[in-house]
Amino acid sequence: MATTADLKNGIFIRFNNDLHMVEEHQHRTPGNLRAFYQVKMRSVKSGKITETRFRSGEEIELVRVERKKYSYVYHDGQSYNFMDSETYDQIPVDDVVLGDGAKYLKEGEVVELMFDGPLVVGADLPFNVNLKVVETVPGVKGDTATGAVKPAKVETGAMVNVPLFINEGDLIKVDVRTGQYQERVKQ
Length: 187
Description:
Elements: E1 2-3, E2 12-15, E3 18-28, E4 36-43, E5 49-55, E6 59-63, E7 66-75, E8 79-83, E9 90-94, H1 95-98, E10 110-116, E11 119-124, E12 128-136, E13 149-154, E14 159-163, E15 171-175, E16 180-185
Antiparallel strand pairs: 1-6, 2-3, 2-6, 3-4, 4-5, 7-8, 7-10, 8-9, 10-11, 12-13, 12-15, 13-14, 15-16
């Protein structure tokens, strides 16, 4: 058994007979009281985020997960489908596991999936993706001076706020974690 001293962001623990991923943790020592760990964790089943307090030195059950790279194939309306590049096996993955960044995935993108036995419990999405702008209001000459933005639809169907000088057909870099425009990419 591990203790609270082994807590790290991104690890999986079993808490109240449910698998959780640690999102954030802090060690606190308030005044003349005993030290404790404040832990923010996400339930793998429901996707719900909870905050829990553990005593310093308390035993926790760490869960080891297997990591494997998969290629994104398609979205069928309910789940995202990935393919193992070695065995060509396809597996569906729920939206809850992938989070909001899934709407920026394009076909062929490599994602590292995490397994607890046969169950997919997490995913490491790429930090940035290059996407083509398919629909936006045309830019006007001289629109580079201000920090104003306009909405643009990218090839995956997601909407991204871009600077006014971006036109249809431009290739842009998008941060998958925040969904924000990073820069225009040369083709």
